[in-house]
Structures are given as C-alpha cells and as structure tokens.
Amino acid sequence: MSEKKNMFLDLPISNKPARFVIQEHITDELSHLDMRFAVNDHLISFTLDGSKITNDAEESSNNKILVYSKGRQHLDWLELNGKLSDVVEYNKIDSGLYEMGTQTSELFEVFLQGSLMKGRFIFRKKVPSNLEKDMPKSLVWHAWKPIQQRPFVLSRKSIADKFVPKKGTSAMSKEWEGKIPTALQWWSKNWTGSQALTAIKEARKILLKRNILTLEQLDFTLQKHPSSWILHMPSMILELDANPIDKNSPIKAMKRSPSIELHGQVIDKGKVNPIESTDNLISLKFSGNKLRGYWTLKKKDSDWILERHKEDIIPKKIANIQLTDVQKHQISTLSKLKFVEISDISRVVGCSKSTVMYHQRKEGFR
C-alpha cells in the first residue's frame, strides 16, 4: 500500500486533541468492540476481536488484543449509540479526546483522554497466523496499553531506526511536549531529517538524566567457548578475545551474525541498558552477577574494541571533575549543534560550564 493511500499516515491538520469512541457492536448472535479515531474529515477505525478492553497496562500488555483495521469511515460513525434495527445495536463504552503519537504503516500510537481509557495505547501490525491466513496482511494488527508510557519517538528503538516525525509534528502528547527543552523542540522549529533526529537524541539524554525517562533493559548472556567468549545481546552478538569479567584493559571484539547459533558454557547473564549509540560508538551499562558497570564499544578501523569506563588517570583540575569517555563524547556531540547553549551542555553532561569550554577548545570548537 502506498503512502498516499495508507490511512495510517493521514496527518491531523490541527494539533489539537481530536475525538475517539469505543462502541460495542451487537448483532443478532455476535458482539465485538469498535474503536474509532477522528482524523480531519474522516475516521480511522478498528474492530477488536472480542468484547473486552482494559486500562490496566500490565494486564493489557500480557493479553494483546487482535484487531482488524477498517477503511476510512464517515465522522457520523462517532455518534452511533442505541438500537438501529431489530438485530443491530451500538452501545457506547467510552469516548473522549485523543492525541496522535507515532504514525507509520506498521505502528499507530495514540494518547487517550477518555472516561475509562487513559494514557498511551499502541496498534502494531502483525504477521497473520494460520488462523488469519485468509485476511489481508494489511488488516491484521495487535492493540494494547504498554507498561512503558513514554512516547515511541523517545525510545531506543525509534532512534536506532532513525525514525523522524513529519515536519511540524512531535509524535507526542502535549504533556510530553512540555518535558522537552525549548532549544530541542524539533516540531516547533520545523526540523526534519538529521537535525530533528539529533534533537530527539539529545532530548532523550536530558530526560534520562532527569529520571523522566528510564533506560530500556535488555537481557544478555556471556558464554565461554574454546578459544573465545561470546556476548549475546538482543540486537548484537560479540565474539571477544578475552573474558571481560577478568580483564580491565581493552578487549578486541568481532560482531557476529545474530542468525548464527552459538552454544557454550554460560558464565554470566543479566540485564544490559543501551545508553547511547552512534555508527562508531555504543555505550552500555551491564547489570549481571559478574559483568557489571559502564562499558564502551568503539569502532577502530575495521575492528571493534570493548572497554570498561574508567576515570582519567590524570584528573582534570577544572572544577574538580573527572570526565568519562561518554561525557567527553557528549560534549563533542552537543557542541556541533549551534542551537545548544553551554549551560544546556553542562546540565546534560553533569559538569561545570568551564569544563565544557575547556573541552570545546581542546577539540577545536572554540
């Protein structure tokens, strides 16, 4: 389906909240729920497979609802309520306003302000199962209220996918827009492409530092093989030439294909938080039984180097602060953005303005 014809890419003309409704559709023998969202002069609608929807995020996440998308519908469908005939009846379950989040051909995100349903809800396209094989792939979706209520645009996955909202849109609710520093509000400045993506990355870092966002935790395992160590993470497998638990010096790493099955002795497992990711540098926080702390994966020529974060051997005497590699990288990244002030950089990095200026001079930014 082309972008022009895909109703899930219909952008609201107004940035004000629009109407939504959840209706129970009762026929002679069957009943189901319909969920409808007003977008400009029409509706985007879904039929829910079943007659139950919950505002409890944990229950909803564990019991995703199978839904089927309808075509564009007339706004009159919002008003259906009561008996239409002897065999057709509509009962309004909930209604109110909603704000649009991320819109793609695979993901439809909304922030509801209903009487019963409130918060962030997700509709994501799924691959039809054997039971749904006769349904067009474009129609089969899952719907749920996620436990994590932050907007998709501020997620690690969104940034890794280099997703950028359409010009002039934030892909967030007004509540979340108010949490973004004015200097980084990409939608109000009509930024697109790499400029908007950079602003989103820096906004995410600020919100993480302020504990408004929390890092997404992923599982990892560390395995011992005859001549190497294998570090398994959801989006990456690394073959290491030394055991990171025992070695504090840099370790040579080679990326392996996730499709290759590698089995060895598991020597540690736990959670890993991806903090920052660029083409040449990835910052990670490990919380295993043995493998713990902050680590950096750096690209050096055609190789990768895994290294534990450590304070500079010779402390910088500016403002009595020692900077980690991640902090230095943050200063360099933010200094490339003309719209970010020194005070903003010092707040994000967690150091004094004089320290920022020192490193800017050192890196040739001043």
Name a few traits of the molecule.
7 helices; single chain; Arc Repressor Mutant, subunit A; 366 residues; 8-stranded antiparallel β-barrel; 3 domains; 8-stranded antiparallel barrel; alpha+beta
Describe the structure in your own words.
This protein is α+β, with helices and mostly antiparallel strands. The strands form two sheets. The protein has an eight-stranded antiparallel β-barrel. It has an eight-stranded antiparallel β-barrel with strand order 10-11-12-13-17-16-15-14. α6 crosses α7 (353-362). It is built from seven helices and 17 strands. It has helices spanning 57-62, 156-160, 174-177, 193-209, 325-335, 342-349, 353-362, and strands at 18-26, 31-39, 42-48, 65-69, 82-83, 89-103, 107-114, 118-125, 140-144, 218-224, 229-233, 236-240, 251-256, 265-277, 281-288, 292-300, 303-308. It has three domains: 7-149, no CATH class; 218-308, no CATH class; 311-366, Arc Repressor Mutant, subunit A. Residues 311-321 have low confidence and may be disordered. 17% of the residues lie in helices and 35% in strands. The termini are far apart.
Rg, Cα atoms, Å? 25 Å
Instruction: Tell me the overall shape.
Output: globular
Compressed to H and E, one letter per element, the order equals EEEHEEEEEEHHHEEEEEEEEHHH
Distinct helical segment count: 7
Order of strands, main sheet, comes to 1-2-3-4-9-8-7-6
Number of strands: 17
List the domain count as a whole number. Answer: 3
> How far do the termini sit from each other?
50 Å
DSSP strand content: 25-35%
Name the helicity range: 10-25%
Point out poorly predicted stretches: 311-321
Major beta sheet, specifics?
8 strands, antiparallel, barrel
